[in-house]
Design brief:
HIT family, subunit A; 3 helices; 118 residues; binds guanosine-5'-monophosphate; 5 strands; alpha+beta
């Protein structure tokens, strides 16, 4: 938890204080369905630690954990879709970030062509 904040909503999901449709969990990562899906498959792949607010901080602080987020995303895309996916790390409010606990949006299924947006 950051020094001046309440536990993030994702930390509360890890603690099972808030229900979620969890599809994967190990010691360091949890993945669950986004509550407001923007694609046929829309999972959030989340390091359990909330020490990192975004992907850049995670890359600098624990690159192995960032790599595990990505390999987990591939495995989940294999299980829940056809193995093809878009991975989105929103960074900052102007990019649409609303939860400042690093997480990857795994978007799969049939995505619209020609756009990077959700
Ligand atoms: P961001 O906007 O920070 O990149 O992504 C946050 C995501 O978390 C959003 O897509 C939002 O729908 C999702 N989200 C927010 N609160 C909850 C919740 O309580 N449960 C689940 N499953 N997803 C949530």
């Amino acid at each position: 938890m950051s020094a001046n904040a309440e536990p993030s909503i994702f930390t509360r999901i890890v603690a099972r204080e808030i229900p979620a449709d969890v599809v994967f969990e190990n010691e360091r990562i949890i993945a669950f369905r986004d509550i407001a899906p923007k694609a046929p498959v829309h999972l959030l792949v989340v390091p359990k630690t909330e020490a990192y607010r975004n992907a850049g901080e995670l890359a600098a602080g624990d690159p192995a954990l960032l790599a595990e987020v990505i390999t987990t995303a591939q495995r989940l895309a294999d299980e829940h879709s056809d193995g093809e996916f878009r991975l989105v790390f929103n960074t900052g409010p102007s990019a649409g970030q609303t939860v400042f606990h690093v997480h990857a949006h795994l978007l799969g299924g049939h995505l619209p062509e020609g756009t990077l947006g959700q």
